[in-house]
Amino acid sequence: MPYLHAAITETLRLYPAVAVDSKICFSDDTLPDGFSVRKGDMVSYLPYAMRRMKLIWGDDTEEYKPERWLDENGEFRRESPFKFTAFQAGSQICPGKEFSYRQMKIFSVVLLRCFEFKLSDEKKPVNYRPMLNLEIDGSLHVRTFHRHGN
Ligand code: HEM
To answer: CA-to-CA distance for 68 and 96, rounded, in angstroms?
Structure first.
């Protein structure tokens, strides 16, 4: 189960469902890096872009690597939600986070146990449209195969 949790987290790190998130400043303020904002300013953070930052995730940031979330005993290693921002952080953190993990695990187990999925065209690049919610540009055609014995 820790590996499935890590695989889902790694998927959300690379492909965050909320790709861009914006906030409006209630008052004049100074951000931790010294940048000044004024009341009414809009501040956005981009989980979709942050996943490409080596400064945050290291040189292998572009790699799909569930192992980065596991410690030496194979247990899930938590990260600060201010680093792994797929569910946002602080008082505005997604209240459905744990529920959505449960749903994603149940669906993964049921679907992957019974079926194998393959891209219809392995050579066609998959592109994304990073809007508020991350969308696949165009469509993603996959073929489904029954796993033997299930
Ligand atoms: C992979 C699944 C999900 C992701 C990545 C996700 C991500 C997020 C993010 C980033 C926010 C913050 C938006 C903002 O305030 O700017 C948010 C808010 C919220 N999410 Fe989720 N969410 C997920 C699933 C769910 C589910 C399953 C539920 C309900 C069962 C849920 C309920 C909410 C609610 C009610 C808020 C608003 C919280 C507030 O305004 O204080 N989410 N979610």
So the answer is: 24
